[in-house]
Amino acid sequence: MEWLQHPALLWLIGAVVLAIVELALPGVYMVFFAVAAALTGLVGLLFPELGFAGQCVGFAAWSAVAVLIGKRWYHDFPVASTDPLLNDRLARMIGQVVTVVEPIDEDAGRVRVGDGEWPARGPGAPAGARVRITGADGTTLRVEPLSALSHH
Q1: Is the pLDDT reported for residue 4 higher than 90?
Q2: NfeD-like C-terminal domain location, by residue (predicted)?
Q3: In whole angstroms, what is the distance from residue 59 CA to residue 52 CA?
């Protein structure tokens, strides 16, 4: 167990553990620290006189470099999504036909979307009317009567 007393080997073990955590819980974040730990371990093997404190400083520096390179990489080569609107609930609502639950007069009212109600703005529409969502301003939906859209 004498090999466990070498901090550089502990960094390499830490790198493997971080890589396994990244594989088990994908979040594309632990991989940067795994790379930093691996580099710290390699530098520690090449320069054992660096000591543990120096290796900690090296790990911090390598972590910063790895995160910055990773951030740049994902900016330049974004991961394509099969559902780009997955986390944009309002954008997913555009085009839906919904029912007015509180009359829309003077540009204010409420509509039922699924099992909830949302504030809405648009041309006057009585309760019970069917309208189509055309956009959003903040959390207020912009709607138009179905008949108004068919004349465009």
Answers
A1: no
A2: 92-145
A3: 10
Report pTM: 0.54
53-58's contacts with Cβ under 8 Å and 24+ in sequence apart are: 55/7, 55/8, 55/11
- Sign, CA dihedral 130-131-133-138, equals negative
Amino acid at 134: T
Strand 97-105, strand 140-145: pairing? unpaired
Element (H, E) at 102: strand 97-105
Q: How far apart are CA 30 and CA 66, in angstroms?
A: 10
Dig out the tokens for 40 from the structure.
Answer: 């710290």
> Which structural domains are found in the chain, ordered by start?
2-76 (no CATH), 89-150 (2.40.50.140)
Burial of 112 (0-12, 13-18, 19+ CB in 10 A): middle
Per-residue pLDDT tens over the stretch 34-69? 999 999 999 999 998 988 899 999 999 999 999 999
Long-range contacts of the stretch 69-75 (C-beta < 8 A, 24+): 70/28, 70/31, 70/32, 74/28
Q: Identify whether the C-beta of residue 3 lies closer than 8 Å to the C-beta of residue 40.
A: no
